[in-house]
Amino acid sequence: MKKIFLLGLIFITSFSAQSQLAVSKIIGKNSKNYNIGFGLFGNYEYPLNETGRQNLMIEILDLEYFPGKPYNLNEDKLSSAFISIKLGYRYIFSEESRTGFYVEPQLGYVRVVHVDDQWAEGKYGDGFAAAFETGYSLEVGQGGNAFNFGLKYENDMAGEEFKIQTVSFRVGFSFFMSRRRDR
After folding, report:
1. Backbone dihedral region for residue 109 (phi beyond 0: left; psi -120 to 50: alpha; all else: beta)
2. Domain-located, residue 86
3. If phi over 0 gives left and psi between -120 and 50 gives alpha, with beta otherwise, what is residue 15?
């Protein structure tokens, strides 16, 4: 058991961790029924080259909530949320550092949940998530840490009743947990 714990700890600390916040909007069908949403994210980033411009991204948590607008005189509303786990590839357009514009396609699993004030329980569907993010990464310090500012489009397909398309503005900070980069 100690060996597994030690190997897991070594594996995790070779990654970069990210914590992020987002402001989101549902687009497409029924988008007028929802207010602006918000979310939070947690990523692991595994560098594929020495400068950290190419990274394998493991989004272990992508949670967004969209409060509904009242749809009748009783002020009942339908709120929605999704939680997803995705794998992605980030490429930063820079020659020497992690500062620059980036693109990141992502694919993974999603659970979409709808909750109506008139229902006893919420309803949900599981399915496939596809996302594309583009933004700007700004390296701070010499350890490979960076601020990230991005726009993300996500299409969650969890059944006919549970399709959501969103556009999000994301802000995050990524930091290497135990790795120092010397230049």
Report:
1. beta
2. yes
3. beta
